[in-house]
Amino acid sequence: MKRNISRRDLLKASAIGGAGVLLVACGATPTPQTIVVTKEVIKEVQTTVQVQVTKQVNVEVTKEVQVQVTADPKAGPQTLTVWGSGLDLTQIDKDPAGAGAAMVAHKTLFLKKNPNAKLVWEEHGWDEALRQNIVSALLAGTQPDAIVGENFFQQYAALKALLPIDEVTPPEVKDNAILGTHKAAIYDGKNYGFSWISGCFGFEVNPNVLKDAGLKEEIPATWDDLLQASKAVTDKSGGKAYGYTLQGPLGFSVGGMFRLAVYMQQVGVTLNQADKVDQPYFNDPKGEQVWQFVRKILPYTPPGLVFEPDEGKVYTQLFAGKSAHQMAGSWHVNWAKQNKLANAMYGAVPIPTGGKPASYVVGNVIYGAMAATKVPDLAKDWVITSQDDSVQKIVFKSAGRLCSTKTSMEALLNGTDADDATKSYGKLLRDSDLGVLPQWTKEPNKLNGIWNDLFTAVLTTQTDVKQLMDEAQKKAEDVLKA
């Protein structure tokens, strides 16, 4: 009999998450059947979260990692139901040797290790639609054995809805995982998931726009360089092109937050308290320079684009030659080519004086095992199997996304499957100080909305930035006290 979490706890979960990154940001095009969750909201959630992560040390890794076969051949038939990634699972059947190859490899290896298992693999959407479907399934007691997601794992772990996998994770698997790719699944010092595919933010330049403006075709190294080049493009293009694409605030969406968080990470700022990942810290004094930078670069952005709700329209301006520079995810390499920009340039995000190289994981697909599963060993093994080199080394070639392990990343960087642009993103994922968005456990949409209101005020007023930050922090604290 399945062990169900209390309804009160699950109602807390129904307030977890937000609209999240728009689907184009993750490269997914799901058509989910979303179940409507209860509108009842618990007004007070008190969860103290401590995440203990060890700073990633980048070392050359050459040894292949393979997960050992541990299934008991005497075990009877068992069914494992997995809610799969936001990618098109039909590729397993439509193109098993191409786009579906990594998924097929994952499935094949899992069944080889567990010959008596039957795998049921389903898609239930991505981002907010997926979160709602997971919460609805938890409320109804119909949850799968293993789930997929990007940024909800700490809350589910706090609700004891997930199983920690540390005890069954071989040391070579743990050490081989690129930490930032599954940092969002680490809660209270325990790991609840591993990343199947990943991505991160870098910087993208349209060299044609720079050339037309008489500028050197290069990626700016610093914020000052970016400001100078953006001003020059805007001044010299006569309204035909602008220097920078800035995605702005929109309701409780985190698309703009995601990109600015990279700049925040560069100066040592997270949006949450360092020791309380579910508590906002919107007035960290170090963040003031980021907001000042936003105000400085705003005049060099395409008019009106900052408040465009369609993320696709925001970032295709660069492909069309109307913008010179922008923050870009690792999927932009193919996206630019699809939009006839074959010579786009890619590299690290410009850093401020005294700052550090940094990035954020995005489009990152994590698997975890559900606590209520009847087949916990299979559920955990599904997660661990995702790390095997036979899967990870073909992730990019089949799915066009970055792998999540060190050995596979080394193979990608040293091989011929990826072009130089993609390899630059691989190095960023491997080497950067990777951040993950906060996982608010109470009133996430309101907190995200407060942050976006702060963003709006920075863009539309001349009010002192520190005052705006302090006001946003007070609003956030008031929400948490209500």
Protein topology:
Layout: H1 7-13, H2 23-26, E1 78-83, H3 91-94, H4 101-113, E2 117-122, H5 127-140, E3 146-149, H6 153-158, H7 171-176, E4 186-187, E5 190-191, E6 194-197, E7 201-205, H8 207-212, H9 223-236, E8 242-245, H10 255-266, E9 272-273, E10 276-280, H11 288-297, H12 311-319, E11 323-329, H13 332-338, E12 345-347, E13 358-360, E14 365-369, H14 376-385, H15 389-392, H16 395-399, H17 406-414, H18 420-431, E15 433-435, H19 444-460, H20 465-481
Parallel strand pairs: 1-2, 8-11, 13-15
Antiparallel strand pairs: 3-14, 4-5, 6-14, 7-11, 7-12, 9-10
Helix pairs in contact: 17-18, 19-20
What does this molecule look like?
The chain is of the alpha/beta class. It folds into 2 domains: 7-37 and 73-199 and 362-435, D-Maltodextrin-Binding Protein, domain 2 (3-Layer(aba) Sandwich); 201-353 and 442-481, D-Maltodextrin-Binding Protein, domain 2 (3-Layer(aba) Sandwich), CATH 3.40.190. The chain has 20 helices and 15 strands. The chain has helices spanning 7-13, 23-26, 91-94, 101-113, 127-140, 153-158, 171-176, 207-212, 223-236, 255-266, 288-297, 311-319, 332-338, 376-385, 389-392, 395-399, 406-414, 420-431, 444-460, 465-481, and strands at 78-83, 117-122, 146-149, 186-187, 190-191, 194-197, 201-205, 242-245, 272-273, 276-280, 323-329, 345-347, 358-360, 365-369, 433-435. A 4-stranded mixed beta sheet has the order 8-11-7-12. Strands 3-14-6 form a 3-stranded antiparallel beta sheet. Helix 17 packs antiparallel against helix 18 and helix 19 packs antiparallel against helix 20 (465-481). The two termini are 38 Å apart.
